[in-house]
Amino acid sequence: MGNGQVTYDTGVIPDPNYDISDVDVIIFHMSNLGYKYPDYYTLPANKPEGQLWIAACGEPYNRPDTEIDCRLLNDTKTMERFDATSTFSLTSDFPAIQDPIVEKMMRMEVPDFASRGPELATMVFSDCLGKTRNAWAEKVIAAFAAKGQDLLSYGGCYHTATETKCENEKHSYNRWINRCSSRPFKIVPENIVEPWYVTEKVWDALAEGAIPVYWGAPEVKLWVPEGSIIYADDFPSLDALVDKLISFSAADFAAAYAWKSKPASEWTGWHKAWRLSHYTLIPRLCEAASKAKSNGGKLLTPDKE
Asked: pTM surpassing 0.85?
């Protein structure tokens, strides 16, 4: 915005009369507006003619465990003030697919896992408030233990091991990607299973050289390279899933990594995920706003295919 320093309160400008007249597009994070509703629920009192309001959501639509969600997208009174939506779903007006990884990182060689130890898999998450994820993770841990297998859990939840740290060439990845502590498989549970809700976690696992064992929305298969992940719900039970990991053959590993030698154009929806990612959202919104100005104020949403 062009008005200098802005005072935010949990990501929301608390003054409904704050001057917003000099901007064409405003992105509202619905999870911030909805947090501890109505404590931080403040929308501008006036909306200048021709200004576009985008209701953005990078969290689940409904996560009662934490109240960090985007349930306001289903609130008719709130949404009647907005011109478009931007979420992790292709059903939104301006999809914002969560954080694919650059090609160079995706193509890095598979680490020498055998030199790191006998452990088969890792798991990392530190948001311990998701009851459904916790229940699933506990069953996974039990399934591994029943087979005499160690599962290295590095995160704040179910912590059993300490990571060996190392630096990534792209330093912005250091927070989420640790290639020095990965193992052949990485258990990747989302904080909730909800249609289209696919986060950066699956991409981070691929960048670590691991094969992601993914528990989350089935739409993940639209984005990642074909054959690159194991989708947990494709198995009749967690015992069957763990049995498959234990029995993975050299041919199985070769098939799971076959995508690395293929052109990126053959990586299922990787290119599309980039084109519709967070990284391109601002340019896409600016382009739409520019076209709306020359179209009598009518917002034309882009082709998402």
From this structure: yes
Q: Which amino acid is at 39?
A: D
Could you tell me which residues are beta bridge partners of residue 214? Answer: 188, 231
CATH 3.40.640.10 fits 103-267, yes or no: no
3-state class (DSSP) for residue 25: strand
CA angle, 268 as apex, 247 and 277 as ends, to 5°? 115
Contact call for residues 27 and 58 (beta carbons, < 8 A): no
Q: What is the mean pLDDT of the chain?
A: 93
Q: How far apart are CA 226 and CA 229, in angstroms?
A: 8
First-last CA distance in the chain = 31
The per-residue pLDDT for 96 is: 96
- Give the start-to-end residue ranges of the domains of the chain: 1-96+276-305, 103-267
Residue 159, burial from CB neighbour count under 10 angstroms (0-12, 13-18, 19+): middle
Backbone angles phi, psi at 215, to 5 degrees: -120, 110
Per-residue pLDDT at 64: 87
List beta partners, residue 53: 26
Kindly report, residue by residue over 53-92, the tens digit of the pLDDT. Answer: 999 999 999 998 888 999 999 999 999 999 999 999 999 9
In the structure encoding, which two tokens stand for residue 188, read together? 């990747």
Taking residue 172's Cβ as centre, other Cβ atoms within 10 Å add up to 8
101-125 pLDDT per residue, tens: 999 999 999 999 999 999 999 999 9
- Residue 1 banded pLDDT, cuts 50, 70, 90: very low
What is the secondary structure of 207-274 as a DSSP string?
HTT-EEEEES-GGGGGTSPTTSSEEGGGSSSHHHHHHHHHT--HHHHHHHTGGGGS-GGGSTTHHHHH
